[in-house]
Design brief:
Distance between the termini: 24 Å
Mean pLDDT: 87
Largest sheet: 2 strands, antiparallel
Number of domains: 1
Shape: globular
Radius of gyration: 13 Å
Length: 78
C-alpha cells in the first residue's frame, strides 16, 4: 500500500505492506511521535532504500533478545 508522508518538509510516497504500516503506527504511538517523525529518523540512518529501511527497523524492533543471541531490542507490545 502506497502512502504519502512528509520528511524534512518534503512529500514522498512510500510503498509498504499494510502489516508494516500498522506496526509503524504502533511503534510511533509507543514512542510518542508521529509517523512522519519516526520515518524521518529512519531516513537519516538508512543505508538502503527507504521502504527496505522501514521494514528492517520494524523487524528489529519486534525481535526478541534470543533472536540476536541476547542482543535484541524488544519492546513491550500488547
Amino acid at each position: 500500500m502506497k502512502r504519502s508522508i512528509t520528511i524534512a518538509g518534503h512529500r514522498t510516497s512510500i510503498s509498504l505492506e499494510e502489516e508494516f504500516w500498522k506496526a509503524l503506527r504502533a511503534i510511533a504511538r509507543e514512542d510518542g511521535q508521529s509517523i512522519n517523525a519516526l520515518v524521518s529518523t529512519i531516513d537519516k540512518q538508512r543505508t538502503t532504500n527507504l521502504s527496505s529501511a522501514i521494514r528492517v527497523f520494524v523487524l528489529n524492533r519486534y525481535q526478541t533478545p534470543a533472536d540476536h543471541g541476547g542482543l535484541g531490542c524488544r519492546t513491550n507490545h500488547k
